[in-house]
Design brief:
Order of helices and strands: EHEEHHHHHHHHHH
Low-confidence stretches: 76-87
Structural class: mainly alpha
Mean pLDDT: 84
CATH topology of the largest domain: Rhomboid-like fold
Shape: elongated
CATH architecture of the largest domain: Up-down Bundle
Strand order of the largest sheet: 1-3-2
Helix content: 55-70%
CATH class of the largest domain: Mainly Alpha
Number of domains: 2
């Protein structure tokens, strides 16, 4: 028996197993540390299975995989629990690693305290410094801390859900250190760009979220075996939302340059990893 890949999404793993069954290549699912492992029963079929896996990772939403799942619905041998008691805990906590959860927790605590009257304190101490010279002296942390500031419930919920989805996926597939690296770089560069463009009064995780979007998007294209895949509809929605932000038609001004530079950071990191990470 040979392990082909570990996927974070059990439904996607089941779709591949079902399609392999239609091709008379028997695979099965097994629990893994970061999701679900797809195991090939007959190693003599490894070459064919790997070719099919590459095609699947390139387009996991293709109609043939959905059709295979319907075909095999009554006869599939592998079983996997998608629900039951504790479904909220499994879908939320199990999807997110320590970095994902810590950033969510810090953001939520700060937002709650701001809502109870500490708004001025956090704006004075966590926004980026008005001058770049202050960042390289005694207040260097303030180039990062704006990502924890949110100014409405819609703001923190929107950013938090995208952070949980994209950040959790990166952390599960590639580890906490990778997510932490992307987060730090995607805080520093976009925040400095936004400071130079509009001053220090901005905040939120959205610049980092766009970095995670760019990283998942380009990694899914450049290194499909990394297990990071985004549907074209999600990428399209986020890119349209980015363009709309620059049009000033959605109410209060947004940190548009932070979004744009965040996207560039994520895409650049994915390209860099393509040529430096030889394990995937």
């Amino acid at each position: 028996m040979k392990q082909l890949i570990v996927l974070a999404n059990p439904r996607a793993a089941q779709a591949y197993v079902d399609y392999m069954a239609v091709l008379h290549i028997e695979c099965q699912l097994a629990p893994a540390e970061r999701g679900v492992a797809i195991m090939l029963n007959d190693e003599s079929q490894l070459e064919r299975a790997e070719i099919e896996l590459e095609q699947f990772l390139a387009n996991p939403n293709a109609e043939k995989y959905h059709a295979a799942s319907w075909t095999m619905a009554d006869s599939r041998k592998a079983s996997f629990s998608y629900g039951g008691s504790g479904v909220i805990k499994n879908s939320f906590l199990a999807h997110a690693g320590p970095v994902t959860l810590l950033v969510l927790l810090i953001s939520a605590v700060i937002y709650t305290l701001m809502s109870f009257g500490f708004n001025r304190y956090f704006i004075e101490h966590l926004t980026i410094t008005p001058q770049l010279s202050m960042l390289v002296s005694t207040q260097f942390w303030r180039v990062i801390t704006p990502i924890f500031l949110h100014f409405s419930i819609v703001h923190i919920v929107f950013n938090g859900l995208w952070w949980w989805q994209l950040g959790g996926e990166i952390e599960r597939q590639l580890g906490s250190s990778k997510l932490l690296l992307i987060t730090i770089v995607a805080a520093v560069i976009p925040n400095v760009a936004q400071l130079l463009a509009s001053g220090p009064y901005f905040g939120g995780l959205s610049g980092v979220v766009y970095a995670l979007l760019g990283y998942c998007w380009f990694t899914g294209w450049l290194r499909p075996k990394a297990g990071l895949q985004l549907s074209p509809s999600i990428v399209g929605f986020m890119l349209v939302w980015l363009v709309i932000g620059f049009m000033d038609v959605i109410g209060p001004s947004t940190a548009n340059l932070a979004h744009l530079f965040g996207l560039f950071v994520g895409c650049a990191q994915a390209v860099f990893d393509k040529f430096t990470d030889k394990d995937i």
